[in-house]
Amino acid sequence: MEKVPRWRVDLMKAASLSGFDSQVIGPEAKLVNDTVKHIMKKLNHASSRYSKGLIGIDFHIEQIKKLLCFGSPADGRIVGIWGIGGIGKMTIAEAIFNTLSSQYEGCCFLKNIKEVSK
User: What residues does the TIR domain cover (predicted)?
Assistant: First the structure.
């Protein structure tokens, strides 16, 4: 019962949100496409906060994103990140994944590939 007041407040907030007007946007397919793009943009913004507070990472992320996004996502580019242990290679790779993964239909991030392959 203690959750009911919080649910009520949250549902009132949700009811007051405005959405897309299907009469203005046009065919249903375009409405769905615009809605998905809007949500993905919001999700990308949320995942881009991953690098906040990490000093010096943004430059590296942008450099690697330029290499990866040279062509279309269908080009299947691979970029290697190497260096001594503990310098942030995995952190950069994960931040890039979080930023770009929404552009693909399916993807996964294999964080400890060495441990998986044993």
Answer: 2-49
Give the model confidence (pLDDT) of 4-55 as tens digits. Answer: 888 888 888 888 877 777 777 778 888 888 888 777 777 665 555 555 567 7
- Asked if 67 and 79 touch (Cβ cutoff 8 Å), the reply is yes
The residues, any chain, with a CB within 8 Å of residue 50's CB and separated by 6 or more, are 94, 95, 98, 99
Using CA atoms, how far residue 23 sits from 31, 33, 56, in Å, is 10, 15, 46
Q: Where are the domains of the chain?
A: 1-52, 55-117
Q: Is 51 helix (H, G, I), strand (E, B) or coil?
A: helix
